[in-house]
Amino acid sequence: MNIDELLVVTFTNAAASEMRQRMLDAIYAYLEEHPEDTKMQEQIVKMGKASICTIHAFCLEVIRNHFYEIGVSPNIRIGKPNEMELLKRQVLEELFEEKYETEDKEFLLLIDTYTTYQRDDALKDLVLNIFNTIKANPFPEEWLKKAVEAFNISEKEDFANTKWGKILLEEAKEEIENCVLDLKSIKKELEKYEELSKFTETIKQDITNIENILVEISNNNKQQIRKKG
Question: Contact at 8 Å (CB) between 51 and 7?
């Protein structure tokens, strides 16, 4: 097979240049031992037309060669990262404005849940983060469908046993453990002063109460493990 019949895809332009040079070096090394191999000699010439590039560059070449068939300008180019971010932000701004103007009920519920009418930047950032996560998946629509279905939880199901409930419980556990450490540190300082003994006792009781919550969370996790077993 000739080198110009292959598609060699890399992640960056630098990697493509390095790959091209390594292949040339390998051909030259081979020809030093087999100078009579005319087909391998031809590969040096064909290397100039070989598709050794990023996937973006390859797709751009295909589009430019067939722009008249797909109805785009032959001057099309690959967008720079900062340009793409600006475009995404612009589309998102226009979408939000449209939803506000039409008073879309589901959209307004989303606003009430995650942000306020005065500041909706947090929701916009969340949408972009979700978009970037989906885009990184080889089958984005399929992934998104499964992700949405994961939120369809039956009212009869104990939320603590769900995927999301377990995540929240684990986060709560970490927060509580940090609180206990902070309270113990405070208690240690208070114990240095007898006149603050009442405050010390209050802190001790708080530590006991919070540690009891930790015990409940741990017991819940153990019960789930036994059920799985």
Answer: yes
**CA 92, CA 89: separation in Å to the nearest integer?**
5
Distances (CA, A) of 212 to 82, 175, 208, 217: 51, 14, 6, 9
Q: If you search the block for the tokens 């990262």, which residue do you land on? A: 81
CA torsion angle 114 119 124 130 (round to 10): -30
Q: Which residues contact 16 (CB under 8 A, 6 or more apart)?
A: 8, 10, 52, 53, 54, 57
Per-residue pLDDT of 151-188, as tens digits, reads: 888 777 777 778 888 888 888 888 889 999 999 999 99
pLDDT, one tens digit per residue, over 94-106 is 999 999 999 999 9
Are 187 and 204 in contact by the 8 Å Cβ rule? The answer is yes
**Angle CA 124–126–132, to nearest 5:** 105
